[in-house]
Amino acid sequence: MRAKKSSDLISPTGIIKLMTHAMMGAALGLAFSLALILSNPAVANLLNDGGRQAVIVFTLTLVTTFAIGATLTGVVFILAEDKQS
């Protein structure tokens, strides 16, 4: 019987992996918000009428959503990687 080892999530390497996933998600959210603004004139008009705060809220919402999703996906990947080894 193998000795039970601790999860890689609770190590410095696991934290760095999770931060990397979060940063990738944030970058993806920022790219998606830019693509959405450039490809959809209705969104661009809404943001233009809303002012600077509307742009900030729109971008931060997408960036945060993508970052949280990528972090949760990273948790699943790290746990699946633990089970395989």
Automatic annotation (TrEMBL):
Organism: Bradyrhizobium arachidis
Keywords tagged on the record: Membrane, Transmembrane, Transmembrane helix
Transmembrane feature ranges: 54-80
Name of this chain's protein: Uncharacterized protein
